[in-house]
């Protein structure tokens, strides 16, 4: 393998103004027009699972990114940049990574950020919890001096830069790591610190000692929970909230009410997660029957107004693991073929199973549509709605047969989706689905840091799993959409789920 060394230097000054209109970000005017005392009020669908990264869930970054920072930064568009580390370099064989740490950084409790804190967090995360799988190849973390760290890997791990840009790269103040209250009392280095946490509302205040505090032009953030999508949108229209994510099907209503939109592709998909140890899903023929039973184009048009791109693969067009040969999702809707697969599986009269979803309106509606489409091929899906926390718990523990879910496939790195969903023992592979050759291809994909080198083996994994009947049945690639009241600017599409609230600006 030829050498691929990445080295990045610190960025100077504040970020430039975001793109205007309804593209990548909300527009902005001159700095003098912003209200530094303003509090940004953001409507969210649910409470955080935990502020301890070891216990967090895939959709928790919207909360974690407010109070924590990762070693490697990542822009909303997905470009890696300095974070708590200002420079980094791999060894020639990608088995060692050296990081130069940012100086002058302080934790929310006043303690200094240094190499010892990095070692403590990485060791704690790789020992147990939600980040352990991402850090599986980390063999040793060593402080070289107060502001530099070396990470040694058990095998070539060029992919680790993306991992360290996610939750696994978060640095928690060392004493807080041992505090049983960490799930509700985070101690990070972020632009904001948690000031109040109660059911239905999370409040943050600006951290005045933040190393780049000058770029933050709001005094705090209030996140209020509205589980129902129509209610979230109404809260912004009424002025109760300043902004919220909305579904693509709500765009016309939002625009009609004078709201500004931020929208663009996101590395999430809507799909069905199957437990291959439940119902009939251990049979590849049954999984293929589900794959062909779904009319994705009808779902996109009827439920999302065309704003969710039909797909039979995890990665949408524009993301480097995307497989061009699987582009035409329409040809994979074939009721007759789905029935043939069921007959070949010995189920000519179909079968029944329970299909669960969370409290979000979109996923309840999607479940009902899928129920009707599956019925056309003889499959009886009995739909049940779970509370948000119960849905997360059941997905983790395997206490389900099939779940309609929003799946983050690109964060922190596409290979982690493969490890979590396609490898035995994966965090979301409840049925221990396995396929010969995938571990070897995954190791090849993870060895290098260059996406061009990684693309071939990653695409081969996607193709092989598709042919074997995937344990995750994709429906459509999500277009991320958020609506904001007039005067709120600076927000950009979090392509890989990285939220930058410090860039929010509110007019006087």
From TrEMBL:
InterPro entries: Peptide/Ni-bd, SBP_5, SBP_5_dom. The keyword Signal applies. The keyword Transferase does not apply. It comes from the Bacteria. Residues 79-428 form the Solute-binding protein family domain. Residues 1-20 form the signal peptide. Keywords: Signal. This is ABC transporter substrate-binding protein.
